[in-house]
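Give me the fold.
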Amino acid sequence: MTTGFNRDRDDFARGGRALIVLPDQGDAHRDADARLDEAAGLAAAIGLVVTDKVAVRVRAPKPATLIGSGQVEQLAVQVRQNEADLVVFDASLTPVQQRNLETALEAKVIDRTGLILEIFGERAATAEGRLQVELAHLDYQAGRLVRSWTHLERQRGGFGFLGGPGETQIEADRRLIRDRMARLRRELEQVSRTRGLHRERRQRAPWPVIALVGYTNAGKSTLFNRLTGAHVMAENLLFATLDPTLRQVSLPGIDKAILSDTVGFVSDLPTQLVAAFKATLEEVVSADLLVHVRDIAHPDTEAQRADVEAVLTEIGVSDLTPRFEAWNKLDLLDADRHDAVLAEAERRDDVVALSALGGEGVDALIGQVAAKLTAGHRRYWITLAAEDGAGAAWLHAHGEMLGQSSEGLETQYEVRLAERDYERFLQR
């Protein structure tokens, strides 16, 4: 059998054979099969070939190996039968547990955090994204044996969890890690300042910002593309979007708004990634409206909703930020479930049911977004000189024109505006 220890990292990542192991500790809020499918999806996201998925009941976690010794022996047999290069534990492993399992299974072992970091390392397309992922990776590795420093030299690809040329078990140089992390943090602080300046300019405009948030693969990018006509990568793939994308959209009563597509959240999202992606997620924190896109067809949709809300709280999103839920993927429901979901959504004022792929319910979503953003608008009667075309154009661009009447050399406009826009108009 050929193990992941002796193979080139890129060959391994794109064609390696992975065995998925779910240490099931009896989480009543999640379906075990759905959790195994998600872990398999994470592995597939970096090109691993999943040979089998196994749930292992864990009554009392073992400090040395997490699972019992008899279960480890059974897994070793399955690793050999599946000719697996890699064993993915859908749980957090301590460095000691990881090392002991690798020795017992004679295969490379990574945990859920390591796998997610590997995906982010491959997917981050921008310089900012790669800085964020590298910082998260170094933070994760700081308490573990650093197998290879080649990730600091590679221009593309992941961050070395799955192997590397000349890979050896070397002792971590903690000073080097700390120095590198300090440099990365300084660079990200500069990125954050630049992003903050851009945000200040938008606020002075001011254009409302709508942030799409949700669990990974909930359909945010598909909805983003439908609303903006953009071509952001939207695939049935976990973490298809990592780097934030901003586009201008027009809405009823709002001449211009900014729509932001953000990285998808996931259960047990590594704290290192939450911290590293703070600069990116600041767009969410400062948004005027959050649209929480949910995969309503997923068996764990309620647990996913709770995961997203927990991350929003962790990154500092205020409970006062207006938000509502977009129950996506109606097209995947059978007729009875489809009708039941629609009926439930219609009974609530904080939900819109839709299919971002097929278009059903998207117009209702647009109307809901516009209504939420204009909820604080008031009606004003503004009189302008007939020759003040620029003033009239400004009112048309920033408010909802309800009527107008002319008398002599003056025109009176009845317009609905946000209070801040009215103040800006008076100061123009």
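Residues 174-204 form the longest helix (31 residues).
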